[in-house]
Automatic annotation (TrEMBL):
Keywords: Signal
Source taxonomy: Bacteria, Bacillati, Actinomycetota, Actinomycetes, Micromonosporales
This protein's record includes keyword Signal: yes
Limits of the Ricin B lectin domain: 669-796
InterPro entries linked: PbH1, Pectin_lyas_fold, Pectin_lyase_fold/virulence, Ricin_B-like_lectins, Ricin_B_lectin, TAT_signal
A Pfam cross-reference name: Ricin_B_lectin
Protein's recorded name: RICIN domain-containing protein
Signal peptide boundaries: 1-37
Amino acid sequence: MSVPSSPRRHRQVLAGVASATVAAAAAVFVSAAPAAAATTTLYASPSGSGTTCSASQPCSLTEAQNAVRSRNAAMSGDIVVELADGVYRLSAPFRLTAADSGNNGYTVTWRAAASARPVISGARAVTGWSLVDSGKNIWRANVPAGLDSRQLYVNGAVATRARTAVNRADFTFTTSGLRFSNSALSYLNNLGNQNRVEVESVGSFTDRYSPVQSISGNFLTMQQPAWNNNTFGFDTLSQPHRAGPFYLTNAYEFLDAPGEWYLNPGSGQLNYIPLAGQNMSNVSVELPQLQSLVNVGGTYDAPAHHISFSGITFTGTSWLGPSSSNGFADQQTGAHITGTWARPADALTSCQAGCPQFEATRPHWNQMPAAVQVSAANTITFSDSQFVNLGQTAIGIGNDANAHASGVGLGTSNITVTRSEIARNSAGGIVVGGVRADAHHPADQRMVNRNITISNNRVHDLGLEYRGVVSILTTYVSTALVSHNEVYNMPYTGLSVGYGWGANDAGGSNHYANRGLYNYQPRYTTATTASNNQVIGNYVHDVMQQMTDGGCIYTLSANPGATINENYCLRTNGWFGLYFDEGSRYYTARNNVFSATGTWATANYWYAENMGNFTVTNNWSTNGSTNVTNGDRGNVVSGNVTVTNNNWPSGAQAVMAAAGVQGTNPPAQGVQIVGVQSGRCAEIGGSSTTNGTQAQLWDCTGAANQRWTQTASRQLMVYGTKCLDASGQGTSNGTQVVIWDCNGQANQQWNVNANGTITGVQSGLCLDASGAGTANGTKLILWACNGGSNQQWNLRS
């Protein structure tokens, strides 16, 4: 696929309309504290104790919280809790309510101390590994009996639960389970711990898990209600719209490949097969103990408010919902069915593409609870932080009550997530809003989610285990601003706005009347809460990598005043650029760039008669394919340009250059890039300045040939003029990593990621010490990211 030729992308501050919009939003959302206010600073550390909370005698997180509560009633200045370096391991979620809030216009801030990188973790470190099966190279460590988890993080990457890929055609589906006749599968009858085995089915836009009850006589009896809920409706486990991978997971007997693991909670035995180059005496292994980390929220009468977090890494969770008898009956973007529902006796034939009984479930779908939860809250900010290695949605803002540990959902306003990285998590990045009736037609106006800002974040490598998710989803929200984020490496859609397929909009939908939905919920006569939402200046690339029926930017239902402007969409694996799905209405899309996508703009008019009123003007695309036409259904479509041979007009180049993250953390200056496995530095041998000289490992000396500077264009520069470069713009395994005159091209742009990897923007491959070598002179190359410690790096001053 072609790569645009604009050499300097995504770094400069966007001039004009979008920046003015962002500035205006900031002016609305940020209120200045009174002048000459005195700040109170408290200090915490992972080993802190006592109640002094001073720099010389720091306290624990819990005591710091108590200290805030003793001081915040009559605040005359901000209260800052400085977190020292290290890992704060939680035994229970950290919950902040109205009692923890700032008052009198001041803020309570939890932030990293200078040069510190505090980590709030819900996991325990696992050590004491021993080899128990030399033939399969299985290693084992003991953990507390009764501890269960669906995730294990090894060297900063999620490992794979033991699984085996099976052929869907080898199984016959029944109302109680799966029958097989292939003799090669007869060993399944003898599996141990059979009620922990699961079936995973990857479909078109759903990724479903259904637990087994028992296996005998070549029959898998499945747990209920998970089996019933997964085998009726749309894109079902039994008849997906697209038949993707089909796995049996979570049995010790499936443990047969490097990087796989299996936990037996009864015995407390954790088993793992190391990847090539991993030494179990020094590998970092984290086993989650908590299902959420931070819960911010009060009640509608007493919300949490004026709280901020800065410079913190949030990590180490596992959501156990799919391990229950409900399994994970995925419907869309993490919403799922739980509980027992009536269904036709012949559902396996009559309800594989919807039926009236299935519609009874729709108003009652649950949302996936996030690792960091915010509800019944206002004026909350997360900045300059990382949300990594989380077993579910990373951040949930104003979701339905079922997704919040507080039991109170919705009700968020003036919430900001900015200048942060959200990466390498099992599900999606940020979900704002709920999907049930109180989200779209609230019984109490204090439930409305409004004024949410998500800006200047890097959101990538998500959906590792729940693939039907997006990076940022806003459902029923008023005045959300999703701006200048970079989104990439997603299995499904990039950004998503709206929910409900138009069924909950004013007047409803005849299509859903025909389906029978309104036998189970009202046909509303008033508009939903979704309005005035903006998607501006985002850089979305390399999405739709595994799933189908999605695109770069996806919409559902009416959204008066919604704008999708000045975004840059690149590579959607043949799927859509801009996808107006069912019920979409009143969206404006201007000045967007669509490169290497499928149909650049499509509207799913097939079943949704209440669609249209789109304004789609002055966009650029590398193809002219669209069914969104001027005059049809009230649409205004004009000025859209098809670009060939990368001959982008200046206006498109300006959008491409400005899209994505703007001015985040100060780039690292003169740092050493130190290999985690080797302890040696990335350098240019012999202090050569010749173009094409390959980078290598060497003992760290601090010399100029080992000092690297990150530029605003994501280059890694040495000597002030030479950049780390994927030789020949290579994108294949083994491509040499060399130096070359800095030119701003994508093969000289690098992402320094939260999990310690450094990935090429153009290739997506990892900076790799060749052959897992650790000796002086080991050459640096590009290789597919695999979690090996030879692909992990620390930046050290």
